[in-house]
Structure prediction request, 523 residues.
Amino acid sequence: MMKPAMKSKFAVMFSLALALCMLFNAASACTTIYVGRDLSADGSVIFGRSEDYSNSQNKLMYVAPAGKHAAGEVYNGCYGFTWTFTHDSYGYTAFSDDNGDGVGGICPDCDGDHAHTPYEAAGTNDKGVTITATETIGSADAVAEVDPYEDLGIEEAEIVTVVLSEAATAKEALDVLLGIYDTAGANAGSGIVIADSSETWYVENVTGHQYIAVKLTDGMALVQPNMSIIGAVDLDDADNVIASAGLIEVAQKAGSFVGDADANVINYVLSYNEGTAANARMVNALAFLDPAYADAEAGIDPAAYLISNVGENGEIVPVYTGIHPANKLTIEDVQDFYHIGNIGYVRNLETHVFQISGEGATGIIEWVAMDDASVNVFVPYYPMLTTDVDASYKLSTATAEFVEEEPAEGLYYATSVNRRVNGERVSVDGFMILPENWADSMYWSFDALSNLIKSGAATEEQAAAVYDALSAKQAEVNETFAALTAQLAEAADPAQLATDWSMKNAQAVHELAVTLTNGLIAE
Prediction:
């Protein structure tokens, strides 16, 4: 692998003002997309999520081996939630915040040094259960007072770890998660997608114990950018809706219920959230999927994106949204979706896209981009065949260091952070220094490249050349992956072939990121 060209020009390039980066100190802004089989070009279910939190915070990817957690073992999460595993855990692919040797085993989420896995964001286990968790969402104050979050309830940091370790089907995964909501409760609100080869479910909870889950249909699409998207739902649709026993009652006690209690119908977003207006990411997403929404000034009716199973005459109908893509979507379209402004940007920790085409070890594909998805290349994996990933994904490093004085050397960029000063939140200007071994890491290599491009430190011509190189590599990866699929059918050891192929391509993508970064610095 190419090593960085450690020159004083680092300081020149990165000390330019990062006007854009200073805008990225807002709250996390993850975005989920789901495309049903009837709306995809190849007949597969496609869904994915950008995990957003902070610019320059290391994220790892790895394979958690089967039996990592033993039957009877008690898992202690970040914030007090505990879980006793009912059997030896299944193996699964995962992402995690970095609490490895590079940071002395300290979790960046809770600052704890006890043994736990900080925020495993998504993955597929060896039984074919796939989950992405979570889209953080909140609730109206009134329902939160009636059914407050539980301090020792499950938090998004633990959901993937527990569910993929325990569940052999999507329905089992639902039973595990919703059972926890019923008993220990939830520590925070979230939107979650859970799937296997036969069904896909979307779950929302925004209070301690109340939730609603809907089975997604093949003929629908959805977008979820940190906002509740479940609208009017008839809870009598037992095959396609699972709701907590007190869902209507809690909203009634809060005085926020909207719906028809006698008909067992609730408008969830109006009962549990204060608004339904599309945020900027929803507007951009709808405009990408359907040119009819390109004129944002015309306004967007929430019916365009809210999930419902209630027809025009109040009858139960298949679950739907009003999102109608202009064409059947390919995996390349979904990759491009994560290039959209406000969706693919410097606060992406990683972005994952799952393609489910059928049963068996090659029925699920996981596409992975570390850091900013809009300056990146998605690498595909067959998660049920993958036994290991390249070392660049797993490297624990020192954290990026924020300083107020401009460094004399190293790789850094100008930015600002929010701090408490005399009890008030203020913005402090300074510089973020990347770890010395940034070029050994998939995450940090793309973090460096993204911050050069998005800061304006690179010229328009230089940026265009980078985007062209990344686009060409993406096309190459996509094309050769199609050939791999055919080879697996005849391979003596499909797992070894799939693992080696993805590892080789990850290494090539990593090397390209380092080469492009060093090229910008040298210029």
Notes: Confidence is low (pLDDT under 50) at residues 1-27. Residues 289 and 325 are 5 Å apart (CA to CA).
